[in-house]
Fold these 4 entries.
Entry 1:
Amino acid sequence: MLSKSTPDELKLSIMNTTSLTKILILSFCFALIFGCSGTCPKDKVPNILFIMTDDHSLQTFSAYDNRFIETPNLDRIGNEGVVFRNSFVSNSICAPSRAVMLTGKHSHKNGQINNTTTFNGNQVTFPKLLREKGYQTGLIGKWHLKSLPTGFDHYEILIGQGDYYNSKFITNADTIASEGYVTNVITDKSINWLEGRNKEKPFCMLVHHKATHRVWQPDTALFHLYKDEEFEVPETYFDNYEKRPAAAQQKMSIAEDMDLVYDLKLLDKEGEIKTKYRSRYESILKKMTPEQRAAWDREYEPVIADFKAKGLKGDALSLFKYQRYMQDYLRCVASVDNNVGRLLDYLEEQGELDNTLIVYTSDQGFYMGEHGWFDKRFMYEQSLRTPLVMRYPKLIKPKTELHQLVQNIDYAPTFLDLAGIDIPEDIQGESLVKLFNHDNPKWREAIYYHYYEFPNEHMVKRHYGIRTGRYKLIHFYNDIDQWELYDLVNDPNEMLNLCEQEDMQPVTVRLKQQLEQLQMEYDDSDRSTF
């Protein structure tokens, strides 16, 4: 026989039941949003579209610099989201940057210190963690890590650097040919994967372009662009590298090291323009279809004839090379911008644009004639800085600009944070989400950089360093022992090495102490092993 409850006891029981129900409901909702154990429900977490190009300079992205080109589709991401004004890499070279982004760890921690090593695909990466929590993961385009991708439901990757025309792709099951311009093809494949995916799951899609990597072969459909442009020459173009011996010893000079045939397309039928990489360029052209090659020759044969007629030498030749370089590089950027627009349009048509975190970046910056150079590698600003824009209106207000020092170690923890996944303790980056949520959050005061790939073709010395909001301290080591200090406020072009100035010794001492602290924090104290 059931005992009767008093009115007070009944009231207390109802209150306890209601509270318990509320707790259970809240716990269930929290688990749905942040736990997602194996089955993240659609629309509870953002899709992630991570678009990355190769060697895209900040100087040729009009959200940062509109002297040379307008990039309306890339700018749209920043205009409708956030532009990071101080975005940097930790090692300015292709494979290491990719490994850093995947793992959230500096090169010495993920093992990919240069382009010659093979990426350890057994280690934890953000695509693996997202996939475990219910995301459908895809990768299309450049991989360049030697080992096959892990953590992806589907991948189609270029072989090595890939080709601008008719490139082959490695898939989960086979190697397949393609026909067309590689930036268009990668976008076509990306849209096809998005169209055929399981639309009940959130997706993480990595679209990694070959462009704008050397040798800057444009799409024939864009040959009309920049044909009659005269591009502004950087004020440091004829730099003599005074008191900067490491800068003087590189092999990435436009004047001396940019190949007339391989880089600038001056393959004359007479064979009179003899260069180091002429045969390499000839092999590239053999991969074109007859129609592509005909359009190619129509564009470049008049350029070749004009060049040979002028007989340029010295500074005049150097400046000619700069103009040719800029013209083809910018055409490659224009193709990237067009294809980013295609992806944005597709997501908008599918009603997924506002549910998706859109990220655009590059694996590093690039020199557009500054200090007389092309390529990257150095810790100087043009290669250290990289573009970074993001769009996710559920969290990021339009036209946001952030000036904190962010780095490519921060991408992985950001994606995991937004997906409600615990960030592994050994990840060295910080989630950028806190920058979206707070007006003045506690953030790093300096970034750490370490470049290892010497000797190699461009002969940039090994070096490590620290960059704060105002100063940069670099140590070149291995077969050289040289310190450089720059005041980025008074000397943004990094022309005056202040290390030997007596009045700058307090700054140098303080920065060396900060540098040592960062090396301890990131566990990069034993550099002799690299």
Note: The chain has two domains: 47-216+324-529, 246-323.
Entry 2:
Amino acid sequence: MPRRLNHVCALLTLVLLLPTALRAADQPAETAARKIKEFQLRDVLGKPVSLAEFGDRKAVVAVFLGTECPLVKLYIPRLNDLHARLAKQGVALVAIDSNVQDTLTETAAFVRRHDVAFPVLMDPDGAVAQSFGATRTPQAFVLDAQHMVRYAGRIDDQFGVGYQRPQPTREDLSVAVDELLAGKSVSTPQTKPVGCIIGRTERPAAGKATVNYSEHVASILQNRCVECHRSGEIAPFPLMTYEDARPWAEMIAEVVSERRMPPWFANPEFGHFSNSSQLSEQERNTLLSWVEQGCAEGDPAKAPPPVTFSSDWQIGKPDLVLKMADKPYSVAPTGAIPYQHYTVDPGFTEDMWMTASESRPGNRSVVHHILVFAVPPGSTFQEQFVKGHLIAAFAPGVPPHPLPKGQATLLRKGSQIVMQVHYTANGRVEEDLSSLGLKFCRAEEVKQEVECGMAINVLLSIKPQLADQKFRADYVFKDDRLLLTMTPHMHLRGKAFRYEAVYPDGKKEVLLDVPRYDFNWQITYKLAEPKLMPKGTRLRCYATFDNSTENLSNPNPAMQVRFGEQTWDEMLIGWYTAAHVVNPASP
């Protein structure tokens, strides 16, 4: 949702962005002695399909889906496999779309695009969802031959709020069906569903509405949310209009009340940041009141004008555009994808002063992040990475950040450009051809040189089965610098992060404290005012890791973890950007 800056090391997976729209339900669905009444719905081709048509089946699996829910997209291949297996066992699998925001045309396109192999039925008024007690997508129900509910809840336990296991530890839906077919009682008849709240056709108002979308809500969503929640961006659904926002009202209320959205994790006791995305209490209460009062639209004429975003380069026309390769990269539909590295020769015949950069993904649905480094003659990518000499980055919700007049980054003559691209599977075979745009200025225009660097600890050795393991990384400034931004980075076991300045006179100051680090969001914290780091100042970064079973994001709590770039490894990097004077006489 919020605006964040470049120079971000975002080593995430798309799945780990799911908490922007996912959580476990407060209560599992009720299953005891409950029969689903006969219903008839139309599939995406208009054919009527009734529950009675499955009367000869040993069981019926009904899964509630939504076209915009990211978790649904990830589960489609698994549900296709399950459908094929169950069909041979005399079990029907059918999906139901009860989202008011999902039109017939959109759902039909979703079915084609994701090669859905099982019937998808439309429940436009949500009546069938209500009869099942379905609240989220995806949410599964297993009915026996008499259409009694024998299981209700999640598909498996691989995904949750803020975590993703490499593999599920229990495939709840499959287990329930197998136990039913074997004549056994279902051992776990209820689990908490995980997913997006189903968009209802209407929401009962609590008294007279004093808050409406047009006058009170639209401006908040424009300022805080739509940079990501718009077509072509990483957020799972748009929030550009009233029609977009109303069906997602309950989801908005949930993430706002739990303070999951907008993501911002800096302890307010330390530092002042110009890009803080925190909602004010007034903004939070306005959104919650709007939902509670029934989501009134108000007078559309009183709404602020729509926000517009450039469909072209956000930095303006680049002076140089570099493609990562001659042909697209084919992204596998499932599984972990190793980082891809592309080396491009920009043809620098002289030193270049870069004033703006923009990493532009060719396919935003699978490009999770791009990190770009300039590797000068005689150096290597690994050396530049360890030094933290990042020149551009793309990550979800990270806009390009042109430097102010008089500031620039030096790219040495003969440098090669290395683009590290991290892809995440979305359930389909995709292709990507990403690119980089650069803008330059003349050397005499540069007053301050801006560099990206890091405090890094590559000697991590995180013990298994232990929480609260603390490590440190230091960087000493060799001359006076103006600190501009800080970007803490760890992986799935990261728990807390703190930047501290230890000045030459021994004085210490906390620059940034992140008591609850969230791997789902790689946020750059931009100081409201640049802070002087005198020569000899030590930038000290403290990181806390949780490698215990209590950390649900933990890929393997039994493993000793060391430094590495893959998500199941760990990192301790305190990225920063800083400036120093190189030409006092420049304008």
Note: The longest strand covers residues 352-360.
Entry 3:
Amino acid sequence: MTGGKLDKILILDFGSQTTQLIGRRIREFGVYTETLAGDADLSDILGDGKNGAGGIRGVILSGSPESVYEKDSPAPDRRVYSCGLPLLGICYGLQRMNYDSGGTVESLPQREYGAVKVSVTADSGALSANGALFLEAAGLSGREFTSWMSHGDSLGKLAPGFIQAAKSETGFPAIVFHNEKPWYGLQFHPEVTHCEKGTEILSAFVFTSCRCEKSWTMEAYVEEIRAELASRVASAPVLLLISGGVDSSVAAALLLKTLGADQVHLMYMDTGLMRKDETAQVRTALEKLGARHVHVVMCGEEFLAALRGKSGPEEKRKCIGDLFMTIQEREVARLELDDSYFLAQGTLYTDLIESGKGVGRKARVIKSHHNVGTPLVDAKRRQGRIIEPLDKLYKDEVRALGRLLGVDEEVVRRHPFPGPGLAVRILGEVTREKCDILREADAIFVSELKKRRLYDEIWQAFAVLLSIRSVGVAGDVRKYGWVLALRAITSADGMTADVYPFPSKDLIEISTLITNTVKEIGRVTYDISSKPPATIEWE
């Protein structure tokens, strides 16, 4: 994608849910990353082993939900082992390197998961110069730190030339180096924010082992993606499905600034599943971006009718996705756009990998996204008529891009909102009554967070209407009201999340305000689950 002038790290994706997080961390260093499927043909990618083709200075082998000893488990092009470039294997990537080099990998009696202590045990004198320098640059020599692990396999016999440099508190290899080649292996995930020394470890590989120079910026990304858009789209019309959230708003700004207001059509669908006053706010925000073709489709009745009787999370998501595209095609026909039009979406990489649409062919489905996994969207994707200019970015990067493009701060700092809207925040069947109840409660929650100056401390906050009622008392009258759950989390990227530690006073006052204002709600709870094991949304 990017010219050969930039130093870059090539990432081979074997299906890990945190693969793109590796790239995000390295981009924060100012170094470009390119991610390919783990088993991609590298014949035209790898160069002479010094700079690589197109400026590649090193290769990272990602984690995976697979096991190397299983039939058809993903394996890299063998050229990666003979190219001479520094290699970093992470979790499955380390196991793959060891297995492919003649070592063994075995199933653990009990998987290592979460925070695990790691002790660096090898004396620097027993390691190659590369290994010793790596440990020194990462600040790991002779110390203990807390890693983040997620694996059920471990190295059995080390391959010839490999040496163990650190072990986990349970006694299994945690860091492995090759004594002759610039190969480094980690049994944990340095890309996850919970991993102590993770940033230093990745930095050591990028700058000390690969000797990369900082040359990657958001300005460089904008220049690259705008050139790519102009080349691919030419003069064809582009229709962006916009929700009014951060992602689609930033995508709109990027398209408008690149292609011009006459070429870009923005379609907003009021599905009846939106937040309070959403439609009016979206129209105002789009006008500020200079949009000329704004098509607002009021289709709440259709969505509520289609959702009637459906209660399963995936069932609701699929229903919404299919209807979303059906209405879009109908409305596009009414617009009389040229058949060559492109469909644009504000899809992020987190949407793709959670839907099993990541770069690696082994990505697992966590949940369907209305604009990613439906048959209709897949058909559009196969036709090559979908543009997703943000599909390599994480939420915080999208916010940075929005600020660079001049998107209003009120929009840029807005908390994420799921594409299926309130339908996945109403557990069970979705009805108009439930939407109205949740809409009002959620508006109170968010408004109070802003008044109390807590909103910007939180990555995402919202309310969830549960599918149960609870007995209560209102005055002297027995009350049987809905149960509402409040959710507020902190996160750096949306891939992992911690519970926001609410001051008790604020949480109690907000809960009381909701039950006093929204008479249908009889009880309020607070969700204290982290991600993992939970997801951010309930459905």
Note: The domain at 218-412 is CATH 3.40.50.620 (Rossmann fold).
Entry 4:
Amino acid sequence: MPSAFARFPPRLQQAIVSRLGWTSLRPVQELAGHTLLDGKNAIILAPTAGGKTEAAIFPLLAALMQHEPEGVGVIYIAPIKALLNNQAERLGNYTEMVGLRRFLWHGDIKDSQKRAFITEPTALLMTTPESLEVMLLSAKVPHNKLFADLRAVVIDEIHALAGTDRGTHLISVIERLARYTNNDIQRVGLSATVGNPVNILHWLQGTSKRESCVVNPPKVPAQKDLRVHLRETLGGIAQEASQIAQGQKSLFFCESRSLAEDIAERMRNRGTDVFVHHSSVSLEERTAAEERFQRGGNTSIICTSTLELGIDVGDLDLVFQANAPSTVSSFLQRLGRTGRRANQRANTTFFCEDIETALQAIAIIELAKKGWVESVPTQTRAWAVLVHQLLALTLQFGAISPERCWEQLAIVPDFSGIADTEFEILIKHMIQEEFLFHAGGLLSMGDKAERVFGRKNFMELYAVFSSPQLYKVQTTAGYTIGSLEQLFVDKLVAEVSCFLLSGKAWIATHINHQERTVLVNPAPRGKKPSWGGFAPQIISWELCQQIATILFSEVSIPYIDNKTQTILDEYRSELKSLASNSINIQIDGEKALWWTFAGGQINHTLKYGLQFHHDWKIVSDNFKLKIEGNSLGAATLDLAIARTKDRNFWENSATQNFIYSQLPEYRLSKFQRALPDIYSMEIIRKYLLDIEGTIQFLELQNV
């Protein structure tokens, strides 16, 4: 069988050799080349900087060269503009070297350039999901002309989209695009880390009839340098990181913008050039940081996840991590930024503020060593995006019948679990609430939708996620401490949630969404902020169970220093009494701690289940339930837990109605307000609860 390279047109072969200086293709590029040239849909897996982009683009360019498209032939989609901008020069070089052109379309591109593109389309279009939606909604874009010969879409960093509302939005837009062409659009997803590629490929496949294939060449094991250091103060973290970073190029990942700013401030004037890179930093500042980073060493960029998604900042020496990410996937993405040069090991040093985040870091490393990565969840009842797409279709067509809407949307995998009758209930509700206007059998944008999502140009509607809305955090005396993003505030529970801001712990007492304010008091002494500073941050069952394994073991951890090992051993000793208790319950008078290590969803489910028969105050997090009550005792608690082990208990309508009535009214999507209450609460249940997982967990308990 000839190589994939031999199947490329001679002009592409010559360009790869003479222009790029390549002597061969990498294994992933060979496998992907055959797969895509054979016309299959594919998920292409390879480590960061492993050549995935070329694995997809070269065979697709080969097909375009054989028969140049009339209009856009291939769309390259990235989840963020920064990645698009970063890839623009590379893909521009690849298209130019074979006589084709590419165009970059997003919100920062001038209208004059977009008009020129519409007049003379390029073979390759680079854009984001939201910008693609803008093109579909714009009357100035001739969809039939641009997309009549569309042949393929490439989705970079697909794991960042699949299983999310943005992913549902993207697959909906792709299916709408497919109506403008007679081609069966070839679908290609690129990812470095995903636990269930077959499921993601099935999701990406949509209505395409092509054969499909996961391209996943064997990985060559490589040595890695990993360290976990517990340093307790940000000053100590900044000092040690600065010393290690001297004369080298490093990325320092933080889990929040405020933490990134704090660490950056403390690292300045310690001998290293320090830049900050997150979504609230201006584009000019982020670009300057990336350019300075590429030019020389002795530079550290303190960043959030904005630099996790494949953006090329040149050769990198070190990766630091403040505390720990919530997933193995994020860790692997960040680790993969290093180790790209010959004789260089991939590396990450974790600097943790407390033993809990140190445990989380250790557990993530241990799961990665086993080869375990999170599976990307799939969804079939994506209510919030269904609302979004209904409104988008009314804008695209001016007025459209409910039947035609459902014809276009029912084919999307993420809506496949929604029945025709449920869709009709949604339409009726949106008409009644004036989100939609119904006349002559056609739907159009309602007055309330215009008020909520913006009358001027509906930019709020274009994005599945709102631009970050900030809430003022104020004391009861009216002193403003700082601000929090809406996504964080939506998960706060008054009188329960505790968080860090401006270096102090606060407890939320009242949340006013109308005025965008959060009233707080200093957190009671001894009340720790929620794990990771977020409430509730849902951590997976697997990660929590790995933390339990570490805690109940006496094995030393080889990649932590002596100080961290000492503190870990002390923490292990505190919980040692649980080892002889098969169900991990500590009871002290009328208070109990049940250490489940079951993850946030199962623990929240248990909380409401136990409260069904008892007037107990229960606070749950990812690792335990804190239970207080007058009637609380070992026998009473054992009986209550035993009752919840019966599947009939959870399936009983009285239990379910009670649980649903107790759920906090989290706003997980801006489109929830357009949903009937029953579907809005379903979104919250899906985020917060896991009844099936809870039943399986209880079956393992010896009560």
Note: The radius of gyration is 27 Å.
